[in-house]
Amino acid sequence: MQIALFQPDIPQNTGTILRLCACLDVAAHIIEPAGFPVSDRHFRRAGMDYLDQVAITRHDSWSKFAQWRNDGGFRLVLFTTKGAASYLDYRYRPDDILLFGRESAGVPGEVADAADARLVIPIRPSLRSLNVAMAAAMALGEALRQTGSMETGSKA
Q1: pLDDT (tens digit, 9 = 90+) per residue, 128-147?
Q2: Which residues contact 134 (CB under 8 A, 6 or more apart)?
Q3: What is the rounded distance in angstroms from the CA atom of residue 105 to the CA atom of residue 117?
Q4: Rounded Cα distance, 49 and 46, in Å
């Protein structure tokens, strides 16, 4: 299981997600350009000393990430407010990449079209969305529960 962040623009959320990845032994990918430098103090504070404990791969463009993913044969699972299926009804595989878009804009059409699945975390209809770090935690927790990866503590 892996997490990918498409052009993240809030450093605190990215740091929190990377800390989640470190704690659950999940590789992380950042698809550039990010809306902040890696040296950003908010990013470092949210990630704390956990940033040294997570495998982070930076991809300097969507096309390079897409090529890497295709070469590896990984399924891409996009979490989006525009998803048609609930994240709870999806059957995850250990080699899935869970993709989360920019906090301010989600992902562009070409990225959504490249996803093998588009999932939504159901929330009250009168509200827009969850915080991306909370959504990542919920999605990753369910994916790891289904694949049994949480019990082994090993990377899939």
Answers
A1: 889 999 999 999 999 999 99
A2: none
A3: 19
A4: 9
CATH T-level topology, domain 2-152: Alpha/beta knot (3.40.1280)
**What residue spans define the domains of the chain?**
2-152
C-alpha span between 38 and 48 (Å, rounded): 13
Mean pLDDT (whole number) for 14-19? 92
What sign has the CA pseudo-torsion 98, 136, 2, 154? negative
Helices and strands (H and E) in the chain: how many: 6, 7
Q: What percent of the chain has pLDDT over 90?
A: 76
**What global pTM score does this model have?**
0.91
